[in-house]
Amino acid sequence: MSLVNQLIAAILAVMLGLTGGTLYIVSDQSKRMLTNQLESHALDTATHLGLYLAPYIAKRDRATVETTVNAIFDSGFYARIDVVTENGETLFSKSVDAVVEDTVPQWFVNLVEINPPSMQREVTFGWSKTGSIFVKGHPGYAYEAYWKTAKVMLVMFVLLALGATLLITSLVRLILRPLKRVEQQAQALSEKRYIEQPRVPHTRELRRVVLAMNQMVRQVHQMFEEQSHNIEELRRSAYQDELTGLPNARATQAQLGDRLDQREDFGPCTLLYLRIGRLQELNRELGQEKTNNFIRRVAEHLRQNADSAGPHIIGRLTGADFVLLIRRLPPETLHRLNDSLLGALDRDYRQLLQGSQTAEAPVRLGIAHGSDRSHASQLLANARLALEEAERTGRREQHHLQQEAERIDESWQQHVATAIGNRQIFLQAQPVLDSTGDPLHKEVFARILNRENEPCSAGEFISVVRELGLMVELDRAVVEHVLSHLQSHRDAIAINLSNEAVQDLGFHDWLLQRLSSLEQRERFCIEINETSVLNNLEGIEALRSALQTLGCPFGVDNFGVHPSGFGYLYRLQPDYIKIDGSLSRGVDEEAQDRFFVSSLISVAHSLDIRAYAERIERQSQLDQLLQLKVDGAQGYLHGAPTALD
Length: 645
Description:
The protein is rod-shaped and about 165 Å long. By secondary structure, the protein is an alpha/beta fold. The strands form three sheets. An eight-stranded mixed β-barrel has the order 10-11-13-14-15-16-17-18, surrounded by five helices. Strands 6-7-5-8-9 form a five-stranded mixed β-sheet, sandwiched between helices. It has a four-stranded antiparallel β-sheet with strand order 2-1-4-3. α5 packs parallel to α6 and α8 (279-286) packs across α9. It comes from Marinobacterium nitratireducens. Residues 173-225 form the HAMP domain. Residues 267-403 form the GGDEF domain. This is GGDEF domain-containing protein.
């Protein structure tokens, strides 16, 4: 029972005791008053009868005595009247049974005992005693009067009790409303939500409690913000180029390796390798500040082109070298993109020179094209070769000849579209194990068969699916396959929704409707890429809330690499995160990686969020992560993806 209800119950109990005692005292006084009235009435009757009947009693006139007594007795106020001579002879006696009228309930008669007293008055005539008269009142009158009084008192008591209850309840709840908000604060704090009470009560004790709670909430929130800030600073120093804000060489190569060598899901791609020539000469001619401004402008234009091209990896490899990995574009689109980039850099360079209007920026582009099976190291090497060829020949951009863009295979597009439309996909699954080696869930990956009827990697068909605008349909097919699987299996399955499905409100409604009919919904896990989360945080919050209501676990995939940081965890409160493989791949070899991953795990645990690690391939990786208190791990160490069914 809540404190408010306890206080209300205690006050009402005291009031009921006081009211009950008061009711008893008043009732007892009423009973005494009625008894006294009966006594007085009986005594008056005996006196009046004695005065009137004195001569008749002396004459022993039974007829007159009987007539007079009957006349008085018939009024109904008496239970017995006896007329006795001086020597004890009963001259006349009349009595009736003490029966109470039906207007008074029998239980009330049994509960309340009223015994009217018997009053006696001596009768004298001619200065001598002639007899005595005994009169006893009838209790019926007293019971009727007492019952009427009790009914009125009971009704008044009930009405007053109800009114007092409502009034006390309202007053207590109003006075203790700040405590209710303190309870909500404490509950929110346990859920890692930080809310303060804007209104401080005037009651001294409650005011102190509210102020103390607000102060604690602010301090805890500040601790989390400081922790997040410190980890952000660590990430920037370890993985971000200080001058441009782009990922540094270490982070860029890790992300390239993770997407191209590990996941193999980027698809046909293009790598742009940009180099600023004569960097040392620029420093001497323009000064370090202007040169740094030019480097920042190069990074900014690269970032703008990357954003317009869709999913990408961008970074600064050395002081003069930048790379940008984008999905394969048609040759004319790529040509316009490069022309726009070089033209913007030329304008910035002329502004720095403040002179010649024909000078070109000292930048060169090496371009290498890759397939879904291209390796990061080979793609970088080809792009460097193309860049060196551009520098040798004096051209501004050069494509690597052996990796020219392939022509679009329309028959392959038709094959992929048919497979998605007919739901001709199959799922592979890779387990996620906890720290003791027990399975947590399986993450599924969609696959289709190629024209030779052999399974193909995601990189071979995902880019085509995206070009055809079929990503949402692919996700629908995956959900339908997983729901069908869960009807006959007891394992837990996690699916990773695409960015297109995340932004499709119709897909949200369809997904929630399908899940509402699923039994044991805790076995259906939804994961969303961190980039997709940050691009549509409000929409993801709504989806997360709906999934939480249904009881479906929710996780953030590829966690820890987005430049916007991870402050969104406080708002989103996912059930778990999966630390990106580019961060965990060197955790057993690099102290910086180890410390950063440890910090990510600490932040997650401070919000009661489980932390899993991806791309675990070596036992040394797993051992190190277990020392860092990771909650689960996924990777080839635990097994390659295999057919779900």
